[in-house]
Amino acid sequence: MSTSSQVQVGILVPLSDNLEEDEKSAIPKIPLSEGPNCVGRDCIPVTDKRLSRKHLTITATCTGSADVVVEGTNPVVIRSKGERKKLLSRERWKLGSGDVIELIPGHYLFKYVSTVPKDETSPSNHQKRPFSEESITDKGQMHSKKKAREICQEEASKMIMLHNNGQETNSSAEAICQFRVPKHKLPLTFRLMRVRGLPAWANSEAVSISDVIQGNVLVAILSNYMVDMDWLLSACPTLKRIPNVLVIHGEGDGSLECMKRSKPANWILHKPSLPIAYGTHHSKAMLLVYPTGVRVIIHTANLINVDWNNKSQGLWMQDFPWKEQNNLGKDGGFENDLVDYLSTLKWPEFTANIPAFGSCKINSLFFKKFDYSSAAVRLIASVPGYHSGPSLRKWGHMKLRTILQECTFSKEFQKSPLIYQFSSLGSLDEKWMTEFASSMSAGVTDDKKPLGNGEPMIVWPNVEDVRCSLEGYAAGNAIPSPSKNVEKEFLKKYWARWKASHTGRCRAMPHIKTFLRYNGQSLAWFLLTSSNLSKAAWGSLQKNNSQLMIRSYELGVLFLPSSVKRGCGFSCTDNGYPSGDETSMHEGKKLKLVTLAWQGKGNDDSSEVIKLPVPYELPPKPYFPEDIPWSWDRRYTKKDVYGQVWPR
Fold first, then answer.
1. How far is CA 75 from CA 11, 15, 239, 339, 616, in A?
2. Is the distance from CB of 618 to CB of 597 less than 8 angstroms?
3. Strand 547-550 to strand 66-70: parallel, antiparallel, or no bridges (unpaired)?
4. pLDDT band at 579 (very low <50, low <70, confident <90, very high)
5. What are 311-341's pLDDT values in tens digits?
6. Is the pLDDT at 1 greater than 60, yes or no?
7. Residue 84 neighbours by CB under 8 Å, 6+ apart
8. Residue 621 per-residue DSSP state
């Protein structure tokens, strides 16, 4: 459900066919916040595809009334004061407390109940109050639901204590509390996204969408898989003022029609070609053009409410200035990788007015106008196709292998372990796992000896993690791996627990994707990416290793122990470059990448310590015998924190 505010003023109560509250309903009550709320398959946990993911929008007010507009192509029936009113697509109606909404086809019935106390609905008293469960009329039912939730949340607390070997989390909480990054060093690390409902300490340095899309943006290119247009515009109103916006997406035809109806008139929608079956446009990135430069953002969240509010996610960004006139032909690894990737998307060229240049054609070559020489990361992209010859090492895991082979690492990382952490598991086999590990294990030590193969572990939530999560079993919708992929015998040796006490995210299920090599709390390298663990995302070698077949578009950023480059503190929104005093301390030093739990001495003359907020603990704990890896097509009868079973 998409909300623009956390002040809850109403609730949708599921009803039976005879319009009575259904205590046995598998559908939970749906809280409504003041402002627009998107209601559909995202918040109604059913598999019925006739129900749109964004079926209708209810704009609730602190006066107790609410406006409803039908977003999908299927109609809605409103029952109000004994009358029935059928609403077609884009039609509106004003709801009163007690009115019944019927979503059709599918016959899903809900009663709208205002939870604003009566004295607050009068014009003389508009002060907002937090939602109170006791304000719902059926207190007996709410008490039993609340009691069930308290019991299950107590179980969740016990589970977290077990994850911490019986230790309280206050001390581990200090890790994320102490993560403070000066603005000029932000490109050297990444940040976690803010999670609603966590204590303030857990959201230290965390970001929301409005933190990154800000200032005088002239052109915005938003790349993603899923896009909820109504949520996006309400969560980031700045977007409405940007004169040129291109949305590159991976949505299907049904959702695309809804996007077309909801988008501002000047926005362009584009879905890149998918030449190989079962591929997706999955890359999650933003390019924001300013009068002073460009902001490049790579992240892991779909442009939907639950991804930016309920899950563990990550985001990296860096600003780059325009090139000087005498350097227009100069390029480098980051620029070449970015422009090569953008050129494969083949979006419809459009024109934008840029103050320094006048009217400009916005295509992939336009992005050669910026100076990326200070780039703090390398790009690792995937594009669909059969790649051979010079292209063999340009994309997917072969691109990662190539860059790692060019790097030197400390001896401590010889034969050190690997971590694969992601939110969807493809259909894999042992041959491909060996192929993938070969790429992940590339690189040499300072004395030119190969690092050697690392033993991988897969950090993946188990069933108890999902059951006791902030969303309960509903979180499993975003961990969409079937049992036929998850329960392969050869995978058992890889499973490791999702434990994130030090970042406060044990119960915020991961949608973030990370791959890394480590020794203790030191990191050889770290990759933040849209890529899950699948052949579709990373590619599979064919024809005696002379061809790499990739199905999907993906994009990630690779952090390496390279030297810090001059100018990485440039900002498009904070008056250009920081003062020399702020940056001279670390320019030219070699980076030492560490986790938040690292306890070393800090910077010295030759190295600059950069902490990366890896959300889970290292080393991860292997699964216990009783742990069952989550798969979303199994039936789970033990109730979650909302008193629900799976599937609902």
1. 21, 18, 30, 44, 44
2. yes
3. unpaired
4. low
5. 999 999 999 999 987 777 777 899 999 999 9
6. no
7. 77, 78
8. P
CA distance readout (Å), 578 to 26, 185, 212, 297: 55, 11, 18, 20
**Does 502 participate in catalysis according to the annotation?**
no
502 — phi, psi (to 5°)?
-70, -15
Tokens 């943006």 found at: 217
Q: Let me know if 511 is a catalytic residue.
A: yes
Given 55, 163, 184, 282, which residue is catalytic? 282
Strand partners, 220: 245, 288
CA dist., res. 286 & res. 239, Å (int): 12
The whole-angstrom distance between residue 583's C-alpha and the CA centroid of its chain comes to 31
The Cα–Cα gap between 134 and 147 comes to 13
Three-state helix/strand/coil letters over 232-295:
HHHHCHHHHHCCEEEEECCCCHHHHHHHHHHCCCCEEEECCCCCCCCCCECCCEEEEECCCEEE
Axis crossing angle, helix 430-440 with helix 396-405, rounded to the nearest 10: 40
Token code pair at residue 628: 């069952």
Report phi then psi at 159, rounded to 5: -65, -45
Q: Could you give the C-alpha distances from 116 to 34, 97, 420, 558, in angstroms and in order?
A: 10, 10, 46, 49
Query: What average pLDDT does range 420-425 have in this prediction?
Result: 98
Among residues 299, 387, 511, 586, the one annotated as catalytic is 511
